[in-house]
């Protein structure tokens, strides 16, 4: 019973505070409201306590007389909190050696504001839109320059993330790109490439982001893949991509045993670009026997049948598949579990969809660094609850067993 008394007393105290505030016509929230005043009092009380600990004696205590360092007035400072801007009085000492911890020197924002800014930025809001949102919803005046400073702070974390050590083996790495608009004299599309891996435990791991200039070839990809190898990635069983120029040659240089597989879904989408809309369903139906064939020989026969029917009307589709054939057929040698995983880049499409939403909301970017920052923030905001990770892992369990068997135990090295 005695233990319940403090809680009951606290409840009565809170009720009394709220009642007095309402009686005096004081708002609970908003500018000058009860929460702001309480935050001010609590912060100032904590700062006075820190000063007492620093000097070794209480305010007005005779023990401090002629004791060397002493209090030296206060200075006003406005800090941005979750309940809006709060003006506080920060105590000073004569020696200037006081280093407050609850509100550090030069600190203008308390916990929560930075996270809010980064979350809104990850959703694609511009600095001006974030500033207006904070002012409207929280009554917090945050300049665009301050928001830029907050978002710029993630770049150091991005550098660490981009250079972190990797696992020695990944069963599959997907490489794809999202086009962003960058104003470099004039607005132009630039690709931002992403490498997404599946770990030996079935987790999704985004390995890195790289900006391109649209003219990438083997030299560009050799640099990217060598970077991944230098971070500890010694072996990739299968790399799935969308016919990126020069990538297969670079893969052969860095990981000679890696199978390079063209994404079948991308190949189908590219085929539709050459066909009339009314023929899309027919083209899809005619190509299905090709990519579901039990063997490479059977796929070749089915493709010849497709060519006889559609080759005259759509020769560009035939050339597209002929040019991609060497990177299309590898997955035909594996069982259904592996085919289901590697014949599409759906694994990376959900990530790209999140990035595209953020990119579209921004329109265009003033620089490559600004575009990469936006994409990085979008990537970091994926699946904050972790529920997607569980679904992802369960989908991969059977496929990972098939991978280890098909690739002669190379995946088992990741568990050693």
TrEMBL record:
PROSITE patterns from the UniProt entry: TRANSPOSASE_MUTATOR
Region of interest called Disordered, as start-end residue ranges on this chain: 53-77
Source species, domain of life: Bacteria
Biased composition (Basic and acidic residues): 53-63
Keyword annotations from UniProtKB, A to Z: DNA recombination, DNA-binding, Transposable element, Transposition
Signal peptide region: none
Function: Required for the transposition of the insertion element.
Family membership: Belongs to the transposase mutator family.
Matches recorded under NCBIfam families: transpos_IS256
Xref: PANTHER family: MUTATOR FAMILY TRANSPOSASE (PTHR33217:SF8), TRANSPOSASE FOR INSERTION SEQUENCE ELEMENT IS1081 (PTHR33217)
Name this protein carries in UniProt: Mutator family transposase
Source organism (scientific name): Streptomyces aureoversilis
């Amino acid at each position: 019973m005695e233990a319940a008394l403090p809680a009951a007393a606290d409840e009565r105290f809170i009720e009394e505070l709220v009642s007095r505030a309402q009686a005096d016509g004081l708002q609970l929230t908003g500018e000058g409201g009860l929460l702001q005043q309480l935050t001010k009092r609590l912060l100032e009380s904590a700062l006075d306590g820190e000063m007492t600990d620093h000097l070794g004696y209480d305010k007005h205590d005779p023990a401090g007389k002629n004791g060397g360092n002493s209090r030296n007035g206060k200075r006003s400072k406005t800090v941005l909190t979750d309940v809006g801007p709060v003006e506080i009085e920060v105590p000073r000492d004569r020696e200037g050696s006081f280093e407050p911890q609850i509100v550090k020197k030069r600190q203008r924002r308390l916990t929560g504001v930075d996270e809010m800014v980064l979350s809104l930025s990850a959703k694609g809001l511009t600095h001006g839109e974030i500033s207006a949102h904070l002012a409207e919803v929280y009554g917090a005046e945050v300049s665009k320059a301050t928001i830029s400073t907050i978002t710029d702070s993630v770049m150091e974390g991005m550098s660490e993330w981009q250079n972190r050590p990797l696992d020695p083996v990944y069963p599959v790495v997907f490489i794809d790109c999202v086009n962003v608009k960058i104003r470099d004299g004039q607005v132009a599309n630039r690709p931002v490439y992403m490498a997404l891996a599946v770990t030996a435990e079935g987790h999704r791991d985004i390995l890195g982001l790289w900006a391109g200039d649209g003219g990438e070839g083997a030299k560009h990809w050799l640099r990217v893949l060598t970077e991944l190898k230098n971070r500890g990635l010694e072996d990739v069983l299968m790399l799935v991509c969308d016919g990126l120029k020069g990538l297969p040659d670079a893969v052969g240089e860095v990981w000679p045993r890696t199978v390079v597989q063209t994404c079948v879904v991308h190949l189908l989408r590219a085929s539709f670009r050459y066909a009339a809309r009314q023929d899309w369903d027919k083209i899809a139906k005619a190509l299905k026997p090709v990519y579901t064939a039990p063997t490479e020989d059977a796929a070749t026969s089915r493709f010849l049948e497709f060519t006889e029917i559609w080759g005259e009307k759509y020769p560009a589709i035939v050339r597209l598949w002929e040019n991609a054939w060497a990177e299309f057929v590898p997955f035909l040698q594996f069982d259904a579990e592996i085919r289901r995983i590697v014949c599409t880049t759906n694994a990376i499409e959900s990530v790209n969809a999140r990035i595209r939403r953020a990119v579209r909301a921004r329109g265009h970017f003033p620089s490559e660094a600004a575009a990469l920052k936006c994409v990085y923030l979008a990537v970091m905001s994926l699946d904050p609850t972790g529920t997607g990770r569980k679904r992802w892992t369960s989908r991969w369990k059977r496929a990972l067993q098939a991978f280890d068997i098909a690739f002669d135990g190379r995946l088992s090295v990741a568990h050693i």
